[in-house]
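Thread amino acids onto this structure.
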């Protein structure tokens, strides 16, 4: 059964039809017919091994479908040049020297490590396993491949050797085509070097060579510049809800998205007097501003002021952006020495620090390695508990309100009884409460003389100020202070049942109205 076989020289790449029973001698004859290269001058290399036995079959030497053969032509100038280049590279690189002397094995790890090794320096006939081991031992190669050939880099990370084999063949073919195009261009330029177009081409080639040289120097001395930089995120809590906040010293203000504010239950604290439009790289509508809200960073609770945007902050993954205003308020220090951390001064000489989240703690959407944002699962129980507390608080507040209303109506009826009987004693309500049947008969006499007891009526609401006892609910206490029931319920829901914070919010809203 015939299969495809790729054959490459220094300048030409061709595809041949071969069979597993074909001998090396027959293969050389096919190459001679297609490339006009005599069989005697051909040296065939496969996976680092020279095919010296002309009687061996392709199957016996391990050649199967879609493999690649390197053909070196003895006595040719280009072959000599390539051999000289390869010898010079091997002499300069211990890793290449190890591959040259022992091409069929991966060698010891010590001999294959070479920080100066580059992709173009590798032999063209490396097998996938050899190539994988060399890249594993030389991280700078992976950084270069990530930059120049992302598909090959993915195959390396996933250990997909068959995919790697095909990509390596394509890479070598592209390399040979580039070399062939360069040779043709060199010949055209040498024929008429003073032509205006030729001069422009030479100038552009010099520029590209300088850029490539600069890239190789950066790759050798600063390979980290070719890797992806992980953004700075810290874990914090807003109203008990966990968030991964993006630290941005270039942002003027601390910003939260509307979705995040709704999830944290603080949208009712937004002051819409500060609504407007934010202008920067793009534009976004500002819902308003939260003047004061507690956030917890590294176990320390701090007061924070932030602007709420109508939509996500440009990137949906940046739901909370810790800006320069809060960084300056708490004299923050961004320490990037491992382990990188954010240091805050919480007041006086007290400082707190929190480490920046690593790649293994962030979801892929934020540049990490996790498939799902971990805060989603962490906040499920918190949000469920907060909803239950909110429902419980609203229920208890409404129950206490109805009981307060009933007690108020009963006390008013007891007050009206002594007034209509025009009894001289002020203690009559306690003893004569059951005698409510006398009210209809005495009621007509409440026309003149009974006007005097009327001022005594305010004395009976005395139990109302006494309502804020140790057993009363936060809603009852705030209602007894003169705040409306609906406003109290909203404030308690926004503040998570915190009485002191709800009182501050109600007083602030009262002063604004």
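Threaded sequence (513 positions):
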């Amino acid at each position: 059964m015939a299969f495809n076989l790729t054959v490459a020289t220094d300048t030409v790449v061709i595809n041949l039809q071969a069979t597993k029973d074909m001998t090396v001698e027959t293969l050389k004859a096919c190459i001679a017919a297609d490339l006009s290269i005599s069989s005697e001058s051909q040296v065939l290399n496969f996976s680092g091994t020279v095919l010296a036995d002309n009687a061996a079959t392709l199957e016996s030497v391990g050649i199967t479908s879609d493999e690649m053969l390197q053909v070196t032509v003895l006595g040719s100038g280009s072959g000599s040049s390539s051999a000289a280049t390869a010898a010079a590279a091997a002499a300069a690189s211990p890793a290449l020297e190890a591959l040259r002397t022992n091409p069929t094995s991966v060698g010891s790890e010590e001999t294959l490590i070479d920080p100066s090794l580059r992709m173009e320096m590798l032999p063209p006939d490396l097998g996938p396993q050899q190539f994988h081991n060399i890249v594993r031992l030389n991280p700078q190669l992976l950084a270069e491949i990530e930059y120049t050939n992302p598909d090959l880099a993915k195959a390396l990370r996933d250990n997909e050797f068959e995919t790697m084999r095909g990509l390596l063949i394509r890479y070598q073919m592209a390399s040979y085509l580039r070399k062939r195009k360069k040779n043709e261009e060199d010949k055209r330029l040498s024929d008429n070097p003073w032509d205006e177009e030729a001069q422009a081409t030479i100038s552009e080639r010099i520029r590209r060579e300088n850029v490539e040289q600069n890239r190789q120097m950066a790759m050798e001395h600063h390979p980290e510049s070719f890797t992806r930089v992980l953004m700075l995120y810290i874990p914090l809590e807003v109203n008990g809800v966990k968030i991964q906040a993006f630290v941005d010293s270039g942002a003027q203000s601390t910003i939260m998205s509307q979705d995040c504010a709704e999830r944290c239950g603080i949208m009712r604290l937004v002051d819409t007097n500060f609504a407007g439009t934010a202008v920067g790289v793009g534009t976004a509508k500002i819902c308003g501003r939260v003047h004061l809200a507690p956030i917890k960073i590294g176990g320390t609770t701090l007061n924070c002021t932030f602007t709420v945007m109508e939509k996500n902050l440009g990137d949906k993954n940046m739901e909370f952006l810790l800006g320069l205003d809060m960084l300056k308020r708490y004299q923050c220090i961004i320490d990037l020495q491992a382990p990188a951390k954010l240091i805050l001064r919480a007041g006086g000489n007290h400082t707190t620090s929190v480490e920046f989240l690593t790649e293994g703690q962030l979801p892929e959407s934020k540049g990490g390695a996790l498939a799902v944002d971990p805060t989603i699962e962490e906040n499920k129980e918190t949000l469920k508990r907060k909803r239950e507390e909110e429902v419980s608080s609203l229920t208890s507040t409404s129950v206490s309100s109805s009981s307060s209303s009933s007690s108020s109506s009963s006390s008013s009826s007891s007050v009206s009884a002594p007034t209509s009987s025009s009894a001289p004693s002020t203690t009559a309500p306690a003893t004569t409460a059951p005698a409510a049947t006398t009210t209809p008969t005495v009621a007509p006499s409440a026309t003149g003389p009974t006007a005097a007891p009327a001022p005594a009526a305010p004395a009976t609401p005395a139990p109302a100020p006494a309502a804020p006892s140790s057993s009363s609910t936060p809603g009852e206490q705030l209602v007894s202070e003169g705040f409306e029931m609906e406003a109290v319920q909203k404030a308690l829901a926004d503040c998570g049942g915190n009485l002191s914070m709800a009182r501050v919010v109600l007083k602030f809203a009262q002063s604004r109205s």
